[in-house]
Write a structure and sequence with these properties.
This protein is of the alpha/beta class. Helix content is 40%, strand content 19%. Among the domains are: 91 residues, no CATH class; 95 residues, no CATH class. It is globular and about 70 Å long.
């Protein structure tokens, strides 16, 4: 049975549909092991570095949310995310699950080469797990949107999370996937023969269309990007996905509501960093529009940004928590106010690098890589603040000293560019929490936001 037949079936019950889609995904990722082996794996020399930055990502300036040795689940790990995670959290117990036995075998081989001992791999569908209140941190990126009913899959993740745990979740942004979804639907219809969708036929037809598309349009321009694709896996993962859902901020938040989950903050990731899309907040030149926009609740602002920025909006990649968590959700503005009241010092570590050699094996290189890199932030405002950091005074006092208006826009920009996992320049060393320094005010007597 193929995905179109499943969608057209009026008699199939929900469990059967979940099972059938699991089978489709298992076959797809068994054939196309994604992602391909990385050229390098890294291990941090400072084992607390990642925990510190992860806490700061969600505005926990006192390292109070993610424990030093979290129990972690990588849900839908593919070929390498399990290994990356185990290396990042060497003192933690990491469980990684996936539908594809081939992907898990690749992960197992890599883990053995690197001497990873804190990782357990299991072939299992997220839809079938019975975990309850077990994990401090769950990573599930690029997975639930390939399931028949992502709400059901997300519910499993929510139940598996400890009440005070954190879920890192990424689903496709609707405005990023318009062309891909159109192509995937068309190629399935074009390559269906006797009610069977042949992946080999889809792949060969796609290669032909990449080489010679019949019209010049957005589709032809998009397909041309894959003329020099890494391999068939890269083409298949983008253009031949058998099951795909995408979301706007509005539909994403609606899905969370039924799963006892709520958004914390955007997870700044390597893909958004490369694309220069690291902030969900827009800046309007008109003061009245800007003031009204910034006064809105977080989700409403992000929804407006999603609608207006469209394909230029960031990935829908967020940190989430359970609604019944003992940790109250802080608004983005509250996180920024606590950021101003906190003292910071420079933060750095080194990475051990395992390089993929010509023999197909990973070998430890004799050199270390320094993090963060580059040595100074590339964002001009953040670099100015970074150079003025003094561990004896708060960030708000640094803003005062530099005569920087502590507006929400400025503060959030500096917070993102200096204190997140993707930009790990500063570590909180004092202050934060619920206490807010009241001597750091703008001309109107407040923080400017």
């Amino acid at each position: 049975m193929n995905i179109q037949q499943i969608n057209n079936s009026a008699t199939m019950n929900k469990d059967s549909m979940l099972d059938e889609v699991d089978k489709i995904n298992k076959a797809f990722y068994g054939k196309f092991n994604y992602p391909w082996p990385p050229l390098s794996f890294y291990a941090y020399t400072d084992q607390k570095f990642v925990i510190t930055m992860l806490n700061q990502d969600i505005g926990s300036w006192r390292n109070e949310v993610i424990p030093e040795r979290p129990k972690i689940w990588v849900a839908g790990c593919g070929t390498n995310q399990a290994v990356f995670t185990a290396l990042k959290f060497p003192q933690s117990e990491v469980l990684a699950t996936d539908l594809s036995s081939q992907s898990l075998k690749i992960s197992e081989d890599s883990a053995k080469q690197l001497g990873v001992t804190n990782l357990m791999l299991e072939e299992k569908s997220i839809n079938k797990v019975e975990y309850e209140d077990q994990f401090d941190y769950i990573i599930c990126t690029g997975v639930i949107h390939h399931n028949d009913d992502p709400r059901i899959t997300l519910g499993k993740l929510s139940t598996a999370l400890k009440p005070n745990g954190i879920l890192e979740l990424m689903v496709y942004n609707y405005y990023h996937m318009l062309i891909e979804e159109s192509y995937q639907k068309a190629i399935r219809m074009l390559c269906q023969r006797d009610s069977v969708n042949d992946l080999e036929l889809q792949l060969s037809t796609t290669k032909g269309l990449i080489a010679n598309f019949p019209v010049q349009n957005l589709m032809s321009s998009h397909l041309s990007k894959y003329k020099n694709a890494h391999d068939d896996v890269e083409v298949a993962d983008v253009l031949l996905q058998p099951v795909l859902h995408s979301y706007t901020i509005e539909s994403f938040v609606e899905m969370l509501t039924g799963s006892n989950l709520e958004c914390l903050l955007h997870c700044i990731n390597q893909f958004d960093k490369a694309a220069g899309k690291i902030n969900w907040n827009m800046q309007f030149k008109d003061p009245e529009t800007s003031a009204y926009y910034e006064a809105l609740p977080d989700v409403n602002r992000w929804q407006i940004s999603n609608l207006l920025m469209m394909e230029q909006s960031p990935m829908i990649w967020f940190y989430l928590k359970r609604k019944d968590s003992p940790h109250r959700r802080k608004t983005e503005k509250e996180v920024c106010k606590e950021f101003l009241s906190t003292k910071f010092g420079p933060h750095s570590t080194r990475l051990k690098r395992y390089q993929l050699n010509e023999d197909g094996k990973y070998h430890l290189t004799p050199t270390f890589t320094s993090i963060p890199a580059p040595a100074f932030p590339t964002d001009s405002l953040s670099c100015k603040v970074f150079k003025a950091v003094n561990s004896t005074i708060s960030m708000g006092e640094i803003f005062q000293k530099l005569k920087i208006e502590p507006s929400f826009s400025n503060v959030n920009r500096v917070r993102i560019n200096l204190t997140t996992s993707t930009f790990p320049y500063l570590k909180a060393i004092g202050g934060g929490g619920e206490k807010i320094v009241r001597n750091t005010r703008s001309e109107n007597g407040d923080f400017g936001f």
